[in-house]
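Filed under: proteins

Residues; backbone shape codes:
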Amino acid sequence: PALPVGIHAGTRNPAAWQKYLLARYHASQRDNASVQQSIVLCRDAIALDPTFAGAYGWLAISLYYATAEN
């Protein structure tokens, strides 16, 4: 299915993409400090490109990891 108009999975902003990739790496570590860093990086990516759906997705995953029991 298509994403709503104005929202796309990727980004053309290289800085947002770099922060997104780093956020994914940190989220995959699953320790508290890394997950917190992932949240910051996702929010930074979203600030750089508010239409970057992938960054919103990983922000949600990171917030879940932050609240899930380890």
